[in-house]
Write a structure and sequence with these properties.
Elements: E1 2-7, H1 12-27, E2 33-38, H2 50-64, H3 85-94, H4 103-113, H5 122-133, H6 137-144, H7 147-162, E3 170-174, E4 180-184, H8 189-213
Parallel strand pairs: 1-2
Antiparallel strand pairs: 1-3, 3-4
Helix pairs in contact: 3-4, 3-5, 3-6, 3-7, 4-5, 5-6
């Protein structure tokens, strides 16, 4: 089976779900295919001020997640009016340099929401990613600003919305027998793991039935 994780690099909830993502990858290694895709947030989804951003961080990190640390709103820039494509384009471009895993996108997220770096600026985002991946910054920026990478990010964002969801993180679980489970906005491990276990069990049962009874007449 396969699990697709839709994310926005600057989403605080995507930051909070990363331990769950790691736990899933460790628990189901070799049995489940994992991938992530960018789902850009709309400008109106972003806070309108640092004060509002900090209010959101106190709610998500403090009240809900009981985090020992608070996220850093220093990445926020009112002048951008909610347009922060740069870190997402750079994360996507990292795939062209062999970084389909979590290294580049996590480095960008950490620089933004933990260190307060203004990764909405393309030069800053490229510098962070190039250092994390030891990639040539000029080539990485050229890829991030290419029509091909923009087309991939646009397509994955459209794909995200096609599932009739609007909250990130989102997880789409699919298996070989045609089942699909959709989780949008949840960050806890238990419901995801329980669903994966069920889907794996059902798929195994179908396979066992086929071995003993052949294909349907």
């Amino acid at each position: 089976m396969k699990i697709t994780y839709y994310l926005e690099v600057l989403s605080s909830w995507c930051t909070w779900v990363e331990p769950t993502w790691d736990a899933l990858k460790a628990r189901y290694a070799g049995r489940v295919e994992f991938e992530w895709k960018i789902a850009l947030m709309n400008p109106g989804d972003f806070p309108v001020s640092r004060e509002q951003c900090d209010w959101f961080y106190r709610r998500s990190g403090g009240t809900v997640m009981r985090s020992p640390f608070m996220l850093n709103s220093g990445w926020f820039e009112a002048s951008r009016k909610g347009v922060y494509h740069a870190p997402n384009l750079v994360a996507e471009a990292g795939k062209d340099f062999g970084f389909a895993g979590d290294e580049i996108r996590r480095a960008l997220a950490h620089a933004a929401v933990r260190e307060g770096q203004k990764v909405g600026d393309m030069a800053t985002a490229v510098a962070v990613a190039a250092k994390a991946g030891k990639v040539n910054a000029r080539k990485l920026r050229a890829a991030a600003e290419s029509p091909a990478v923009l087309a991939r990010v646009t397509a994955s964002t459209k794909e995200f919305h096609s599932h009739q969801i609007n909250q990130r993180p989102a997880f789409i679980l699919t298996d070989a027998i045609g089942d699909k489970a959709v989780f949008s906005g949840l960050v806890r491990l238990d419901p995801l793991a329980a669903t994966i276990d069920t889907m794996l069990s059902d798929t195994a049962a179908y396979a066992a039935h086929a071995i003993h009874h052949g294909v349907s007449p």
